[in-house]
Amino acid sequence: MTEENVIEIHNLQKTYDKGKIKALNGIDLEIKKGEFISIMGPSGSGKSTLLNMIGALDRAEEGTIKVAGIDLMKTRDLSEFRSQEIGFVFQMHNLIPNLSVLENVEIPMYETRIKSEEMRRRALELLEAVGLKDKADKNPTKLSGGERQRVAIARALVNHPSIILADEPTGALDSKTGDVILNLLKSLHSKKQVTMVMVTHEPYVAKMADRILHVLDGKINNSS
Amino acid sequence: MSFFTLMIKNPFRNRTRATLAIIGIAIGIATIVALGMVTGGLQSSTQSTLKAGSAEITVTKIGSGNFGSSGGAMDESLVTDLKNTNGVKDTAGILRVNSNVSTSSGGSGFGSMSGFLVNGIDSSKLALVGIDSVNGTIFTNGSSNEIIIGKTIAQNLNKTVGSTIDIYGTEFEVTGIFESGNFIYDIGAFTSLSTLQNLTNNTGKVSYIQVKVNDNANASQVSKTIQDERPNDLSATTAVDQANRINQSLGMIDTASWAISLLAIVIGGVGVINTMIMSVFERTREIGVLKAVGWKDRRILGMILGESIILTLVAAVVGIILGIVAVEIIFKFFTTSQSFEAVLTMDTLLKAFAVALLVGIVGGLYPAYRASRLAPTEALRYE
Ligand SMILES: Nc1ncnc2c1ncn2[C@@H]1O[C@H](COP(=O)(O)OP(=O)(O)OP(=O)(O)O)[C@@H](O)[C@H]1O
Ligand SMILES: [Mg+2]
Fold first, then answer.
1. Whose CA is closest to A6, among A40, A39, A29, A26?
2. Is the beta carbon of A204 within 6 A of some atom in ligand 1?
3. How far apart are CA B80 and CA B59, in angstroms?
4. Which residues of B touch A148 (CB under 8 A)?
5. What is the pTM for the complete model shown?
6. Domain residue limits, chain B
7. Which bin fits B127, alpha (ψ -120 to 50), beta or left (φ > 0)?
């Protein structure tokens, strides 16, 4: 693994339903530290599966995958890796409805040794960064779709991950709100110098990235 | 927000479900507490310490109730007869009547706690029933209106030395208040035997006889001798026998209480499993998110288990309050008992909390395990 490659994937294969569905069929991929990558491809081509492999939410059957220097095929407990290196932004914000906005942002810090006041301070700092400091004590159900997604972004960043994985982060939003979220992600990417991998269906969104990857039938299609 | 605060917040997300689960467990806990309070009360009131001078044997007529009958069941002549039995030091005939009951014969002993019991005895034999000192003065034999009363009944009826009490239409004056150490006596009164006999048309009759044995004699032995001499007529019980019988009944209540606890654990446990499984089920996506942000399986297990325990501990508090209130209400409205008060012991409280904790752990373990083993991608795909 070279110094600047934060993600190195070779011949990665993942099947579902006892091998009947080949979701990933030999992925080869290298992503440099600090890069902004967008992934495109038809529905069912394996984009989400690939993102889940990078974020260690699931394990592949074949191939090698190293992320932030960690061999994901060989490490037994991957929760610490997820906690320290990865920040997920999903299509659905997936906020916990009975907790305040602030408390939702604090959630990832429970696995760290951060003290309560420091947790609060950090969460507020990130809410400020996404422009929602004044809504900290509100319930997420009282927020608009775009605001909720901004909370989810704050939650993804709170443990200072090295990689942000965003799976259609604007998919559930109207285009205007979606643009706000994209601009926020882009500015956070450059400000925090994180690596960002984003799945999207919109070509104009994909163009904001440093590089576009096309996935087809579980493979990276280099011809496009 | 601390992890603990999070665990406290979560169970009450679905208020209705949490409330139902809490009520279910609380009823079980309340039953345990109520039974515990009754047993505790019986225990503390029946712990009669046999005083040095008091009689060891109670002799009753067969068929007149086993705990010392009331009314005039026996001939007073037996009092002297029994005194001549081998090993007997002294005897005292006692006529017992219930002050609320106007008929002079029959009646029951232990079971009826309503009204209060008036005993007639020779004033020189008071030591045999454990009364060695009174606050005030004792009655004189043959006096028509002097009476001494037990400290429990004095408290309950609000009587002091000098107060008057109406018994069978005659006004008696309280000359003294005693503490015998025997709860049955302490809820009653003693007056002159002959006076009570005349008042209740029981001339020459007593209800039972107290027998004190010689210092070197064996009470059970003497008890057996008395019974063997009049096999179809008299029944003799030693104080030890009586204590054993009470302990046996208490033991039965105790067993029932344990059985109910077990039932509460099983029923409550199933209820909690159901509640928590539904809660985990509904929060599948959320658990997926918690895994995605790096929570360890152990923390998810701990969270669900903690939520379950918090639910049952809240139920314990509710159940304890419910149990105490229920016992208070039942005692206030459904018994006229002056004999004992329900006692909430530390043991009962600890048992209630222990059962709740157990239900929380038993009921929470499986749902918590299921939650901790959810595959993150599956959980996140869950609709
Ligand atoms: N948990 C699963 N069980 C069974 N099959 C699955 C599972 N997850 C994904 N698949 C299958 O794997 C293939 C790739 O799915 P994936 O979700 O990665 O596609 P995608 O490119 O993200 O599609 P979309 O654009 O619709 O989100 C699909 O055929 C899908 O049906
Ligand atoms: Mg997808």
1. A29
2. no
3. 13
4. none
5. 0.77
6. 3-48+245-381, 63-232
7. alpha
Residue B331: which region, alpha, beta or left (left: phi > 0; alpha: psi -120 to 50)? alpha
Count of domains in chain A? Answer: 1
The enclosing H or E element of B289 equals helix B284-292
Which of these, B352, B372, B349, lies nearest to B360 by C-alpha position? B352
Q: Which has the closest alpha carbon to A212: A53, A50, A36, A32? A: A36
Q: Tens digits of per-residue pLDDT, A29-85?
A: 999 999 999 999 999 999 999 999 999 999 999 999 999 999 999 999 999 999 999
Residue B14 CB partners (closer than 8 Å, separation 6+): B279, B282
CB atoms near residue B364 (< 10 Å) = 26
Do the chains contact at B377 and A57, CB–CB below 8 Å?
A: yes
CATH number, domain containing residue A86: 3.40.50.300
What residues of B are in contact with residue A52 (Cβ under 8 Å)? 376-377
Smallest CA-to-CA distance from A147 within A100, A181, A175 is with A181
Ligand 1: nearest atom to the Cα of B377: 1
Ligand 1 in contact with A1 (CB < 6 A)?
A: no
* pLDDT tens by residue, B325-357: 999 888 777 665 555 678 888 989 999 999 999
Q: How far is B289 from chain A (nearest CA, A)?
A: 7
What range does the domain containing A150 cover?
Answer: 34-45+78-223
